[in-house]
UniProtKB/TrEMBL annotation:
GO terms for cellular component: cytosol; protein-DNA complex. Transmembrane segments: none annotated. One of its GO terms (molecular function) is transcription cis-regulatory region binding. Gene3D superfamilies: 3.40.50.2300, LytTr DNA-binding domain (2.40.50.1020). Residues 156-258 form the HTH LytTR-type domain. Pfam families: LytTR, Response_reg. The modification 4-aspartylphosphate is found at D60. It comes from the Bacteria. Keywords: DNA-binding, Phosphoprotein. The lineage of its organism: Bacteria, Pseudomonadati, Pseudomonadota, Betaproteobacteria, Burkholderiales. The keyword DNA-binding applies. Signal peptide: none annotated. This is Response regulator transcription factor. Residues 8-120 form the Response regulatory domain.
Length: 258
């Protein structure tokens, strides 16, 4: 397909800012692509796909109502599917549902251009062999590592004002529950996100982040020392950061030498 020929697409993501970001980057790499609809969840994605009959659907995986994987099961034979997500452990299941490609957030321009080139080549044709796609793409994205090796959350999405900030988990010193939000603390700044501490604990690498309190997850290699205060409580000092973090009794076993 000629890059300037008309093609239509639907974007499904529960984050407004992420949909806007993807829309902008698609406009840069494929100006002729027409975004005919946007969905905030999987149910909307299926309904709008039925209404607009897009050639392509860009799907986030973790969405309310129906997940991207569940939505894909209902769409795979009606359009080309591309998953755009922060979680690369879903790659195998994505391809089992007929995905043409799998892009990790934040979708960079060059990576997205590669995806659009693949889409332009596939439009108007029958889907390629899914097993072959899976083998080739996983080899490219994971450097040949086994697909069974676990993958964890690598990016935190935080809405700051009218923009979306992408924070690498490598930058995070600790996460702390703050009423309805979770505080994300880096060396340079702090932001609030709506993801719960329990969700983060399930999604982060347990070798990199330890839960030291029901309200606190700390990056292990950011810990400088553990001391005791006058009340006998264990307190974690994070490297190059003034705040001390309390270790609850239930998690004191993490520092058994004290």
């Amino acid at each position: 397909m000629n890059p300037q020929q008309r093609a239509t697409a639907l974007i499904a993501d529960d984050e407004d800012a992420m949909r806007a970001q993807l829309r902008t980057r698609l406009r840069d790499v494929w100006p002729a692509l027409e975004i005919v609809a946007e969905a905030a969840n999987g149910i909307e994605a299926v309904a709008l796909a039925g209404q607009h009959q897009p050639d392509i659907v860009f799907l986030d995986i973790r969405m309310p109502g129906l997940s991207g994987i569940e939505a894909a099961r209902m769409l795979f034979n009606r359009c080309h599917l591309v998953f755009v997500t922060a979680y690369d452990q879903y790659a195998i299941e994505a391809f089992e549902q007929g995905a043409l490609d799998y892009v990790l957030k934040p979708a960079g321009g060059e990576r997205l251009k590669t995806t659009c080139d693949r889409l332009q080549a596939r439009l108007g044709k029958q889907p390629a062999n899914i097993e072959q796609q899976l083998t080739a793409l996983l080899r490219g994205q994971h450097g040949g590592k086994a697909a069974s090796q676990p993958d964890y959350l690598r990016w935190i999405q935080a809405v700051v004002g009218n923009s979306l900030r992408m924070i690498s988990t490598r930058e995070v010193l600790f996460f702390q529950a703050d009423e309805k939000y979770t505080r994300v603390q880096t060396r340079q700044s702090e932001v609030l996100i709506r993801k719960t501490l329990k969700e983060l604990a399930d999604e982060l690498d347990p070798d990199e982040f330890w839960r030291i309190h029901r309200a606190t997850l700390v990056r292990v290699d950011a810990i400088e020392e553990v001391t005791r205060d006058l009340r006998g409580r264990q307190m974690v000092r994070v490297r190059n950061f003034p705040e001390l973090l309390e270790v609850s009794r239930g998690h004191a076993h993490l520092f058994q030498q004290m």
